[in-house]
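This section describes the prediction task in plain terms. A model, or a person checking by hand, is given the sequence of a single protein chain and must write out its three-dimensional structure as a string of C-alpha cells. No templates, partner chains or ligands are provided. The sample shown here is typical of the held-out split.
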Amino acid sequence: MSLPAHRRDVRDRKDTHVLPSSSGTATRATLALTAAALVFTALPATAEAASDPLTRYHRQHLTWKSCVLGPDDTTGEELEQAGARCADVTVPLDYSAPGGRTITVAISRISATDAGRRVGPLLLNGGGPGGPSLSDPPWVSGAMRDVAARYDVVGVDPRFIGRSTPLDCRWPTGSAWRGAGEDRAAFDRMAAFSKGLADRCRTHAGDTLPHATTRNTARDMDVVRAALGERRISYLGYSYGSYLGEVYASMFPGRTDRVVLDGVIDPDRYSARLLRGTEGANRHALRGWASWAAARDATYGLGRTRGEVLATVERVRVAAARTPLRLGGHRLDEHVMPIVVLNGLSQHNDTAYADFAQGVRDMLRASRGQRVPPSPWLAGVLEFVLTGTDSPYGSAQTAIVCGDNAAPRDPEVYWRDVQRTRAGEPLFAPVTDNLGPCAFWDRPRERPTRIRGDLPALLVNATGDPRTHYDAAEAVRDMWPSSRLITLKGADQHAVYGVYGSACVDDAVNAYLATGRLPARDIGCAATDRP
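The expected answer:
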C-alpha cells in the first residue's frame, strides 16, 4: 500500500511505503512557510467569479522563478541544472469556502523543447501519501528519454507536503506506524502512543486537518491544470499516486490525456488500514532477500542458507522484544524492529539488499550486547522513526490517510486482529493489523470517491510488489477493461517504470507516452530483462 519510505530519490528508493522518500542527494531542508501562508491571498477578480467561485484560482498568474532556495539546496540545484523552474499555485484551504483562507502548492516544470509535437503537461506524484514530487522531473525526464521533449514535466508537492504550505503536528517521530508488540501491555502502550499523536495533531494543526484529503489534493491538481492554461493533463502516479490518479480521473472526467499508474492500488481496498493484506508479499520479499544474503554469508554473516538467514531475523525480533537494542544513540524495541524490516523490503536490487543486510547485521550484533554504530541506511531509518526530524512528513501522511477513510475506533478490534494473525505471521501481522492515530481521529468530512467505471490507462506492477500487491493491479485491470497492464514478472519490486531498470517496461511506457495508443494487449516483462 502507500505508506512512506525512508527519504531518497525514487531511482534508489528503498521503500515508498513504510518510511518517507525524497532525493537521495537532497538535504532535509524544506521551505519553512509561516502561518501567514494560510491567510487569504488576493487573486485577480473576474466577472465570471460570481458564477464560478474557482475562476480566480483557475486564472491566476504563475510567477516562474529559480528552484534554488539557498546555498545548501541540493534539490533546487538539481532542478536548476535540468532546466526546471518553480512556481507557487494558490488554492483554497477549504473548497466549500473558496473565498476564505488560502494555501500554496509548490510545483516545478521542465518545459517541452519540441514545440511542434508538444503533448502538454505530465503531472507527477511519487506516492506516500505524503511524499514530495517537486524534485522528480529530472529523473522522470531521463526515464522518458526522447519523449520528454514533447512534454512539460511537472513535479507537484501536494498540499501540506514539501515546499507547499506545511502541516506539522510536532510529533516526536516521522511515522505513526509501529508494531503492536508481544503482549497486551505492549499493545496498550501503542494505543496510548497513537492517541497521543492524534491529540498533538488536534492541538497544533486542528484547523487544517479536515482539509488534508486525497479529494482536496485532486481538486488542487485541477487548479494546477487550469493555472497552466491546459484543458487536459497527462499523469504519472506511483503507489498512492495511482489512487490519486484514480480519484482525479473520477472527479474530473474528460480532463486526463495519457495516464500511467505504477504500483496500482485497488480503490475498493484503499482504507485507513493501508498495510492489511500485504503480509504474504512482504514475507515473499523477505525470503528473496534472505536467499541473496545467504549467498554472501562471508560478507554479512547472517547465515549460509535462506532458512538460517530468516532464523537470524527472528532471533533479532525476539531479542528486541526482550530488551531494546542499543544502536548508536537509539534504542530499537519490539515496536520498531518490524518497521525497520518492512523498510528494508520493496526494492529488488543489490544496493537495496546490501543496505538491508548491513542493517540486519548491525541489529544482530546489538542483540549480542555489542556497541554498534548503525550503518548509514539503518541510522537514517532510526532517525526517521525515533526522532521528530521528519514530523511534517508523518503528520501530513497520517492526516491524509485518516482524512480519506474512517477507521474502527474500538482498540479491541485491532487487538483481536493482531492476536488472530500473530501466530501465522509474528513479524509482519503485528504491524499490518495494529492500530494507529486514525482510531482516534475525527470522522472524515467527505465520503470516499466513487471511482469511475472505466479509464484507458496504462497500469504497471511487479508480481512480487510487497506494498501494492499484484492482485490489486489485476483488480483495476478488470474494473477498467479499456486499460492495459504491464507485468514485471519475478521481481519483489515496488515502483517499476524508470526505477527497476527493465527495458521492456520502460520502452512500453514511453511508446504510450509518445503515441497516446495503449498496447494492443497486456504485456509481460521478465525481471531478468535489465541492461
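For orientation: The longest strand covers residues 102-110.
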